[in-house]
Design goal:
about 160 residues; alpha+beta; 5 helices; about 30% helix
């Protein structure tokens, strides 16, 4: 059986939090200020609980043999544009550095797109750090088109 045949994509559970924190903290390119510092645990726990309680957000993990090897989050937005249609935004896509290049990211995105189809979304969208050229090629291979220019305004140092 190949690695991908054993891949499980499921909703994240509180017991996954340490693995998720470590995965994000290990991403130097993202620049989100993620850290494994124990003093930050409450921030992560509170965010996890808020996501879990949200009717519009879901945090997922990709798991192989009990090991969290990837994650992503989906957010539904209902808009007046597109005749009141629903949009699924995929965010926080991360594959553990040791597992990249094996098709895990593709399976995570496929799962998100399948969810959007079930919910009758008009559009699936995502954003990617402008420095992540490999990720851009990855998303384009999956059928995404770079169509908009994003802007951000940082309100906190982290």
């Amino acid at each position: 059986m190949s690695d991908l045949e054993a891949l499980v994509i499921r909703e994240a559970r509180p017991g996954d939090l340490e693995a998720l924190i470590a995965m994000f903290a290990g991403d130097a390119l993202g620049g989100h200020g993620d850290t494994t510092d124990p003093d930050a645990r409450d921030d992560y726990r509170e965010a996890f609980e808020a996501i879990a309680a949200s009717a519009n957000d879901t945090l997922y993990v990709a798991e192989l043999d009990g090991v969290v090897v990837g994650t992503f989050q989906t957010t539904y937005t209902r808009t007046l544009t597109g005749r009141g249609s629903a949009v699924l935004t995929i965010g926080s896509v991360q594959t553990h550095a040791d597992w990249r290049g094996r098709g895990i990211g593709g399976k995570m995105i496929e799962a998100a797109i399948a969810e959007a189809r079930v919910e009758d979304c008009r559009l699936v969208q995502l954003m990617s750090n402008s420095n992540r050229v490999d990720a851009h090629r990855f998303y384009e291979r999956l059928g995404f088109t770079p169509s908009h220019l994003g802007f951000k305004m940082k309100l906190k140092g982290r």
